[in-house]
Amino acid sequence: MRRKALTAIVVFVFAAFCGASLAADMAAEFSASFIERDAGAEHKGKIYIASDMSRYEIAGSDEIVVTRQDKKVMWLIFPKVKCYVEQEYFGAPKQNISLPQEVDTGDLKREFLGYEMIDSYRLKKFMVTVKYNKGEAVDQYYEWYRDNFPVPVKTQSFDGLSSYEYTNIKLGRPNMELFAEPKRYKKVTMEEIEAMEESGKIKREDSLN
Length: 209
Description:
Elements: H1 4-14, H2 20-25, E1 30-38, E2 41-50, E3 53-58, E4 64-68, E5 73-78, E6 83-88, E7 108-118, E8 121-132, E9 137-145, E10 154-157, E11 162-171, E12 186-187, H3 190-198
Parallel strand pairs: 6-12
Antiparallel strand pairs: 1-2, 1-11, 2-3, 3-4, 4-5, 5-6, 7-8, 8-9, 9-10, 10-11
């Protein structure tokens, strides 16, 4: 079953989005609202990052995704039915990414384009060019960075059709209870959750339009 709630941000760091798991790997600790746009569809929600933990909530979905890399588990939590699913989670591969510089790494190049105001902050805008298969394929997208924040505040595809943006960023460790295994919730299987979805008891992010 498609796990867009967990993987969409991670993929976009390299292709069109910016990853929550990557932020955790870089030891950023913060909470924020996010807006994800993709070909006319728009999803909003909240994200919480604390060291090697993350919590990802999407408005309109009955599902919350909590990752605990320290425990190597991921909890798919369904508050509406007081259930959760536990799965193995090994995290995104470690990345050695510093704040962007105008240098060519061989496969990836960031070009500084200037400054723009977004969410009341003066951000640095870059055009990122990624070459694959020894330059046979090329992908380009935009990133906006804020001082003292290690991941892009906004990432947008070159054609402008897809983007991912953090707003209302609050630096510092969120309440650790947000990353705890849910108390007084029943642990169930994914098959049971899929049955609840088919019966209309819950609405998962996979099915949002």
